[in-house]
Amino acid sequence: MASKEELEHAYSPSRWSHRMGPDDVINAHIKALTDGSNKAKECTDCEIGFSYGLSEKEKYDVFGAQTLPGDAPIFVYIHGGYWSALGREMSSFMVPVLCKAGAVVVAVGYDLAPQANMDVIVSQVKKAVSFVLTLATRRGSSGVYLCGHSAGAHLAALMLSQNWLQETMVSHSLIKGGLLVSGVYDLTPLVNTYINDPLKMTQEDAVRNSPVTHLDKIVEFSEKRRFIVAYGDHDPPEFKRQSTEFNSALLSKGIQSTLMIIPDTDHFNVIENLHLEEYILSQEVIKLMNLNIDTILDQMQAANLS
User: Fold this and answer.
1) DSSP classification of residue 52
2) Which one from 79, 214, 267, 275 is the annotated catalytic residue?
3) Is 275 a residue of the active site?
4) CA 74/CA 213 separation, integer angstroms
């Protein structure tokens, strides 16, 4: 049984970066996400701050919906920050690459701990995704793809276990797949660590809100979905273990899932790099959505010539 200190070290991503020290890597991460998201808002058509609930953070931003065709896939991004940091304002850094490839992007916000507990956060993200599914239906979208990083990957994975037909009268088959990056899929090891201080989860709360607890439901609704489960080469060992085991569990149940270990990245730039067109995860998620960035560029060029 690992001690509290060992667990905290194993679940502290900033202590494992190969690029810089703990404080520096967090500051650099916030700057990269903020700068990338500000740039996205300047260069892409965007509708900022749709409310899906009553609180200030229960909002989402939509990119590319006004210029892309109705059947464009919708990429939903759920941010990390251990459920207590970051926000939708810095969650659109991947927009220029994905919109250029032909995907509408939705960045989701939610209340953070300690203002909200895990049950509240999960129910808020559920509400946000149900709004996106309604938007996708209205547009005639070819499909919705969920992406989350770290705590966001945990939330995205939980959304895969929902019976959306019951929730929103939209078929669960509208969610075609997802990209889960450096996630936590079993919350129970976090209960006795500093990570739980703002969340105050009991063991029961952690079990109830862990994707591994709902694996059968995920499998039931994901028969035709395709997933990428990814982590950075320099992610903490526990994130590697949890990602590997979650991917193996999906595969063992016949779900199409690919484990990707991204070389020369840590917990932070493994997701930051989605703002780069040539980045392997950018390329793979574009393929996942059945898009081809070169085709889109050719079409845009042809349109400009005519």
Assistant:
1) S
2) 267
3) no
4) 27
DSSP class of residue 142 equals S
CB burial of 209-242 (b: ≥16 within 10 Å; e: otherwise) equals: bbbbbbbebbbebbeebbbbbbbbebbbebbbeb
Q: Which of 61, 205, 235, 266 is catalytic?
A: 235
Give the pair of three-digit tokens for residue 136.
């996708």
Report the C-alpha gap between 48 and 58 in whole angstroms.
Answer: 12
Give the closest residue to 236 by CA, choosing from 6, 1, 3: 6
Please answer whether residues 160 and 129 qualify as being in contact, where contact means their C-beta atoms are separated by less than 8 angstroms. Answer: no
Task: Please indicate whether residue 235 is annotated as part of the active site.
Answer: yes
Report residue 4 as tokens: 């509290």
pLDDT, tens digit, for every residue of 190-201? 999 999 999 999
C-beta of residue 59 within 8 angstroms of C-beta of residue 88: yes
Strand boundaries in 164-290, DSSP class E: 175-181, 226-234, 256-266
Greatest Cα pair distance, the chain, in angstroms, is: 67
267 is catalytic: yes
pTM over 0.70: yes
Report whether 50 contacts 38 (CB < 8 A). no
CB 145 within 8 A of CB 285: yes
pLDDT exceeds 60 at position 33: yes
Q: Of 14, 17, 142, 150, which residue is the catalytic one? A: 150
Distance CA 153, CA 133 (A): 18
